[in-house]
Amino acid sequence: MSRVIAVFNQAGGVGKTTVAQNLGYHLGNRGHKTLLIDMDPQASLTAFMGIDTKNLNLSIYNSLIAEIEGEQPIALPIITDLYGMDLCPANLNLAKAEQQLVLEELREFRLKDAIAPYLETYDFMIIDCPPSLGILSVISLVAATHVLVPIQTQFKALMGTDLLLGTTKKIQKRLNKNLKLAGFLPTMYASSTAMDQQTLFDINGQLSAIAQVFSPLPRATALSEATKALKPFGAYLGTNKKGNNGAILKIFDEVAEAMEKL
Asked: By the 8 A CB rule, do 138 and 132 touch?
């Protein structure tokens, strides 16, 4: 059965989509059939994969709300073979789902039900959650087997972790008793900055007893360049894997290897 990993943090700008894209890429490179699922109405993951969100006829939105609109259930719209991964895309229509689902019975299980037919097809499903604690994040956590938390190495980001963990515990207690924490991935780390060093120390001290804390992803111009090129980092680099670039690839591979052991 597939491991369904929700990449989740209620804060925006922590590198969540970059982590989801590159984790999927490294899992694919390690021989795993992998599906990326974009659950963010901003559709950043879909755009990062080179898909024009304005010209999508179907997205994850259609699979979530088909029955509400009186239609038969719609299979996941999947775009295949994108850098060794498949993608279930999103577009701005997904923003309407928050309102449309609010009064629906069993709304929390919409995504879980939608992905159920694919659990034997994919080794991994990676869900890019929206940066909020709304219904789209809830249904993503209900559908997931594990949660991977990107956390920026800033004091404010660490302070927000209590809220994130509280939400996860509520989901575990009420809706998904099998949900587990896959770990914390510090992001945007500037090793030359005393504040980042202290925050990373605090992240390890406070969170390592809860779940694994991975090696920090450094701030890197090449990561931003890969995003602008609409490619996973490894695909963008090609053979240029020396120095800091190689270190970043090693971190993504470290996380992918840990996901294999879940």
From this structure: no
Kindly state the percentage of the chain with pLDDT values over 70.
99
Cβ-proximal residues to 59 (8 Å cutoff; 6+ apart), any chain: 38, 43, 46, 53, 77, 88, 89, 90, 91, 93, 94
Can you tell me which residue has the tokens 């998904």? 176
Distances (CA, A) of 242 to 245, 246, 248: 6, 5, 10
Q: Which domain holds residue 173?
A: 3-260
Which is higher by pLDDT, 155 or 222? 222
Check pLDDT > 90 for residue 76.
Answer: yes
What is the chain's mean pLDDT, rounded?
94
Work out how many domains the chain is built from and give that number.
1
- Report the distance separating Cα 257 and Cα 102, nearest Å: 37
Tell how strand 34-38 and strand 85-88 pair up: parallel
Whether residue 124 is predicted with pLDDT greater than 90 in this model: the reply is yes
Q: Which CATH number do you get for residue 145?
A: 3.40.50.300
